[in-house]
């Protein structure tokens, strides 16, 4: 059955890819975004409604007037180091705005939601499963964990079908070249390393070379953004139980260190990435990985773009196309 889906953060990096995946599956989509970090140019699939989650009345009216019957909630702040410096802003926006959304859903009777969570809730963890005890290391990660707990309580009381997707670093770009990563300024490793390789940055700042990892740099799992988008669609379409929060990890179950990523970019582009070594950032775990076996078994999710080289190639292609004007 086709759904009418509100995607909060729908003009952002992951959100725009989710909107495309939903539309290609025949669902109707409204991308809801305040454009503080998103871009109208990325809202190419579905209809863009510019609005803010802090406006509870307007949100309730939108859900009612558009007859929304499912929500994908991606909007929020997402930088661990920044959250250490500005915890109040992260708790206000990530938790307070989620409560506004959930209240509006309850008022209108929308009972299906997929929440964009994070594997950062695990803290320092290797091969964690969904039953592992969360140990978030930053206000960002704690805000994700708190919203999960809120959603679990609400789902139980309201008989919602609720899903939390805990995923790793989104990477790459739409293989068709229509969408990709676009932040100002750009905080993420792969696009910043590509910028340094292209000479757009004097050097790539690498935060910490004394972590307890094989090469001393942080290790993360990277997942292609289009694979993450597919998982959001599957989470909406599967007949998951009502009255509880279903939690799924999403990742490729392989960790890459910062130096691994740099070497892969150098091999792909045939150039050197200049490095500026700096101190560790607060809130950064040394290594995080988790099992995606549950998502594969229950959702039928299968990453189709797991090769790190493909993530680098598509990210580079989108960055170059954006410099020349977005693909039409």
From TrEMBL:
<dbReference type="Pfam" id="PF01370">
    <property type="entry name" value="Epimerase"/>
</dbReference>
<dbReference type="InterPro" id="IPR001509">
    <property type="entry name" value="Epimerase_deHydtase"/>
</dbReference>
<dbReference type="InterPro" id="IPR036291">
    <property type="entry name" value="NAD(P)-bd_dom_sf"/>
</dbReference>
<keyword id="KW-0520">NAD</keyword>
<protein>
    <recommendedName>
        <fullName>UDP-glucose 4-epimerase</fullName>
        <ecNumber>5.1.3.2</ecNumber>
    </recommendedName>
</protein>
<dbReference type="GO" id="GO:0033499">
    <property type="term" value="P:galactose catabolic process via UDP-galactose, Leloir pathway"/>
</dbReference>
<feature type="domain" description="NAD-dependent epimerase/dehydratase">
    <location>
        <begin position="5"/>
        <end position="251"/>
    </location>
</feature>
<keyword id="KW-0119">Carbohydrate metabolism</keyword>
<dbReference type="GO" id="GO:0003978">
    <property type="term" value="F:UDP-glucose 4-epimerase activity"/>
</dbReference>
<keyword id="KW-0413">Isomerase</keyword>
<comment type="pathway">
    <text>Carbohydrate metabolism; galactose metabolism.</text>
</comment>
<dbReference type="InterPro" id="IPR005886">
    <property type="entry name" value="UDP_G4E"/>
</dbReference>
<comment type="similarity">
    <text>Belongs to the NAD(P)-dependent epimerase/dehydratase family.</text>
</comment>
């Amino acid at each position: 059955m086709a759904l009418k889906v509100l995607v909060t953060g729908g003009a952002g990096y992951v959100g725009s890819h989710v909107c495309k995946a939903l539309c290609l599956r025949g669902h109707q989509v409204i991308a809801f975004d305040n454009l503080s970090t998103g871009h109208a140019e990325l809202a190419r699939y579905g209809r863009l409604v510019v609005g803010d989650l802090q406006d509870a009345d307007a949100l309730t009216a939108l859900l009612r007037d558009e007859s929304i019957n499912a929500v994908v909630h991606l909007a929020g702040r997402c930088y661990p180091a920044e959250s250490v410096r500005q915890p109040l802003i992260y708790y206000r926006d990530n938790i307070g705005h989620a409560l506004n959304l959930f209240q509006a859903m309850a008022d209108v009777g929308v009972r299906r939601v997929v929440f964009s969570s994070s594997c950062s809730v695990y803290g320092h963890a290797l091969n964690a499963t969904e039953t592992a005890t969360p140990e978030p290391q930053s206000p960002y990660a704690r805000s994700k964990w708190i919203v999960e707990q809120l959603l679990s309580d609400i789902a139980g009381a309201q008989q919602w079908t609720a899903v939390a997707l805990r995923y790793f670093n989104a990477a790459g770009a739409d293989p068709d070249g229509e969408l990709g990563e676009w932040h100002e300024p750009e905080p993420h490793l792969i696009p910043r390393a590509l910028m340094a390789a292209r000479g757009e940055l004097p050097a790539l700042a690498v935060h910490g070379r004394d972590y307890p990892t094989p090469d001393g740099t942080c290790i993360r799992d990277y997942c292609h953004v289009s694979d993450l988008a597919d998982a959001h669609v599957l989470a909406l379409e599967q007949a998951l139980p009502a009255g509880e929060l279903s939690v799924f990890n999403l990742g490729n179950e392989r960790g890459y260190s910062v130096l691994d990523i740099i070497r892969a970019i150098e091999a792909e582009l045939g150039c050197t990435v200049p490095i500026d070594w700096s101190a560790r950032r607060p809130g950064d775990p040394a290594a995080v990985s988790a099992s995606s076996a549950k998502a594969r078994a229950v959702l039928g999710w299968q990453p189709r773009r797991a090769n790190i080289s493909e993530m680098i190639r598509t990210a580079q292609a989108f960055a170059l196309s954006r410099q020349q004007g977005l693909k039409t």
